[in-house]
């Protein structure tokens, strides 16, 4: 573990109840600008499709917008679902972003479709075949970015020769092995699928092969985090997160809901199977006051050995979300100051 653990944010551009995409984009901009001012390391946006209450479907467009509205923070994808796209087009898009915003663009890559099967097939008829070609498509992407591709018949402009860091994203052991074999940094989706996270990190470190991109293993965990003045207030805010996952597992699509008065009552009101799934998905969530989060996140960083932490803040009220962002940065400053 390094002495200083950078803190970053994953934003899903969630549409809240009685809101719309336009308002959500404005809130996303304000969140990114505050994260930039506070010294967060990265601001990543996720690719999802056919989800009426997730406004980040055109991920590359939104990355360009956020990068243009901020000054220093790295902006990127968490992630681009590579089987949905031609590696050539992805290289052209991110090469363009890197040219516009030098040394500020990240490219996180995932294997999943970011949607349901019919939508995946609507995006790309050969999605399944492309998902099996994920390692080869990552290599193709690396080639397009490389200056060594200058003599090839097919070249990606203005990507060629640009320095866009590639990350492998995942929620399984398979993704860990792939990231290790390619010598790339590895980010784990602990904010919704934390079950194999610790095993995956160990597998990645044990099998890591140094590359021209990275000499030593580099891991990042994405977790849910909600901070407030008191543990009780943070728990109330977290009921929006738990409602979101409850609606997801019960196939009840709704925008992000206002908080409820009791988390216990919410969970007890779910069917047993749904409650079990929600508890699994939220097992890596940190909710509480600054004091509580300082203790819990410090312990998590120690146990996981991560090099970087990324948080997802599913909070209904925009001002509460901005406050949570501020408090979590204070928590990390305290943790880093004590290392």
Descriptive notes:
This protein is α/β, with parallel strands linked by helices and 339 residues long. The chain has 13 helices and nine strands. It has helices at 21-38, 59-68, 87-100, 117-123, 127-132, 134-145, 173-182, 197-207, 231-249, 263-268, 272-281, 290-304, 318-338; strands at 7-11, 42-45, 74-81, 105-110, 166-170, 186-188, 219-227, 285-288, 308-312. Strands 1-2-3-4-5-6-7-9 form an eight-stranded parallel barrel, surrounded by eight helices. α1 (21-38) packs parallel to α13 (318-338) and α3 crosses α6 (134-145). The N and C termini lie close together (10 Å). The mean pLDDT is 96.
What does the secondary structure layout of this molecule look like, with pairings?
Elements: E1 7-11, H1 21-38, E2 42-45, H2 59-68, E3 74-81, H3 87-100, E4 105-110, H4 117-123, H5 127-132, H6 134-145, E5 166-170, H7 173-182, E6 186-188, H8 197-207, E7 219-227, H9 231-249, H10 263-268, H11 272-281, E8 285-288, H12 290-304, E9 308-312, H13 318-338
Parallel strand pairs: 1-2, 1-9, 2-3, 3-4, 4-5, 5-6, 6-7, 7-8, 7-9
